[in-house]
Design a protein that fits this description.
Helix content is 36%, strand content 29%. It is an alpha/beta fold. It has 2 domains: 137 residues, NAD(P)-binding Rossmann-like Domain (Rossmann fold, 3-Layer(aba) Sandwich), CATH 3.40.50; 148 residues, Dihydrodipicolinate Reductase, domain 2 (2-Layer Sandwich), CATH 3.30.360.
């Protein structure tokens, strides 16, 4: 039997305590060893809650010597620093999305992981939910014909979360909600956009609070993206084909006990499929543990992250072509 991958968690925020730490504990492929916070009190409190060790200071977690991997659950502006430190310590890294605030940072992180021979996965947990495999299978069956356009929407009302509105911490609607739309558009077509136009609006905030983008994938294929921090809640994507339309609800944020709905609309009728619930954070942990030690998988994860960072950079620039 293969030994579980021993994890340390960097950061004790909501995404870690609500979703990822429970997934690490539920996985037979992972072992939660320790959690770290800048606050000794918070580290100890989190450790008591989840039955592991608490560590004051991220450096002290990385220097323990009894870890195989770390999960980086910090604001985006801190991802690069601590991913680089983890890679230099010889640890595999599962880092929350968006992996970096700039393409240059992403390239530096990938280079460090490559040099150290460790895995680096950008943690888009949603992609590991079985719903998206079901969507891909349905599209491949030809029921909606050839996909010609993807429409993605992810947005929500203002959240009481200061780091999301902090430029220095990598805040902004694009880095947070919009990143999912960028990722899903690339995932559905299995390609990189050849041209991008975009608009980002800061309103009265120091960061972008909503935006939109148009991706041209060539051969008549496009994607329309909408995202925001001050919008009515939407969490869906739609694939428009030559013979039908497929839409998926709860596409990006889906609690482990909640079913989603996949609707296929054609000229001859509408079919609605209720998709079973699953914990996509647990699915992500298992996928990471299975692939972290494989060179080919490591390379594919780096290429995926680089493609995402390039697309994000072009959206930020609002560029065309």
């Amino acid at each position: 039997m293969i030994r579980p991958l021993r994890f340390g968690v960097i950061g004790c925020g909501r995404i870690a305590t609500r979703s990822m730490i429970p997934a690490l504990l539920a996985s037979e492929s992972a072992e939660l060893v320790a959690v770290a916070s800048r606050s000794a009190e918070k580290a100890a409190e989190t450790a008591r809650t989840f039955g592991c060790e608490g560590v004051a200071g991220y450096e002290n977690l990385l220097s323990r010597g009894d870890l195989d991997a770390v999960y980086v659950a910090l604001p985006i502006g801190l991802h690069s620093k601590w991913t680089l430190a983890a890679a230099h310590a010889g640890l595999h890294v599962l880092c929350e999305k968006s992996l970096a605030g700039t393409l240059a940072e992403c390239e530096q992180m990938i280079a460090a992981a490559d040099e150290a021979g460790v895995a680096l996965l950008e943690a888009f947990a949603y992609r590991f939910h079985p719903n998206h495999a079901r969507v891909a299978e349905t599209i491949a069956s030809g029921v909606i014909g050839d996909p010609v356009q993807v429409r993605t929407c992810f947005g929500f009302p203002p959240l009481n979360s200061a780091h999301r509105y902090d430029v220095g911490l990598g805040g902004g609607a694009l880095n947070d909600a919009g990143a999912y739309c960028v990722h899903a558009s690339r995932m559905v077509f299995g390609a990189e956009p050849r041209a991008i136009s975009a608009t980002l609006d800061v309103g009265d905030q120091p960061v972008d609070i909503h935006g939109a983008a148009l991706f041209d994938f060539g051969q008549g294929r496009s994607a329309v993206l909408g995202f925001g921090f001050n919008n009515m809640y939407r969490n869906t994507y739609e694939v428009w084909g030559t013979e039908g339309v497929l839409s998926l609800t709860r596409a990006f944020s889906n609690p482990p006990t909640l079913s989603a709905s996949m609707v296929v609309t054609r000229q001859d009728g509408v079919q609605e499929h209720s998709l079973p619930p699953a914990d996509h954070f647990l699915c992500q942990v298992d996928a990471f543990c299975a692939g972290a030690g494989e060179a080919a998988t490591q390379q594919s994860w780096r290429e995926e992250a680089l493609g995402q960072a390039r697309a994000m950079e072009r959206v930020r620039a609002g560029s065309m072509g």
